[in-house]
Design a protein that fits this description.
Number of strands: 13
Largest sheet: 5 strands, mixed
Distance between the termini: 26 Å
CATH topology of the largest domain: Ribosomal Protein S5, domain 2
Oligomer: single chain
CATH architecture of the largest domain: 2-Layer Sandwich
Strand content: 15-25%
Structural class: alpha+beta
Radius of gyration: 19 Å
Strand order of the largest sheet: 1-4-7-5-6
Length: 319
Amino acid sequence: MTEEAYCRAGPSLALVKYWGKSVKGENLPATPSLAVTLGEVHTETRVTLGHTDSVSVDGTPQDPTRFAPFFETLRTSLGVSAHFHASSRNTFPTSAGLASSSSGFAALAGACARAAGLDPSPTDLSSIARAGSASAARSVFGGFVLLPAGGSRARQVFGPEHWPDLRIVVAVVAEGPKPVSSRRGMEATRATSPYYFSWIKESAALLPEALRAVRDRDVELLGETARRSYSLMHGAILGGKPPLLYWLPGTVAVIHACAALRAAGTGAWETIDAGPQVKVLCLEKDTRTVVSAVAAADPAVRTIVCTAGPGLQYEPLAG
């Protein structure tokens, strides 16, 4: 055993959204999801061996019960009895609708395996990471990644080099954590929204178009498919009892800014996960225009420009 290891992972931005868990349990997704792993932002996790399991994120100790299923799955899958002390830090807001759980559990899986002296395949790490967060199954891989409905592991569809001029402008509307976690929001939607099962059906229907758009590097088709996906997802969320609205005024301002850009001939297609943040798909040539439009829509919103990023990396960050 190496006793200490580092792993870095980028968050997984779903273009066709994952929202809802399979009735089969085991943290399996009810919907298929196609995602891009973001570069330029990441989670870095340092793991050492210990006598108990513990996790801290950005210096804050985490609830052990949230991580117990992950560690149980990891030990069973890897055939080890070790326990792990993990310390993670994010270069972007945590639990704020920017998929920090995807990068967090992916980096945790990689670091724990290396600390235990093992080097499992990305496919096996994907299955382990999914036990903590279904979207983490995607963050293990770089580029464009598919997690099928009911799937226990994700697979890479195209590497990050496939679409070099694609950009994702992340509009950070609020820095703090969202008031309702994705886990709680998913369960409330499934249990109370009359639109939930329509969402499941429509989400599956969007996947072939999204895959074709990525294959052909068709940003307009991908953007419109992503817009349809997030709109359906948030419609189902709003149909719950009580309705759950993650958006803030800045969210709506950025949505309108994107609509105005498209009307003026600039490609800018927004997508929104469970939270107030907006991610805008565009091409490299339009990035400055998009960033300027977001700033004009709400000067309090900061932007991060991302490309399709790599899968798990194991060297520590400098500094």
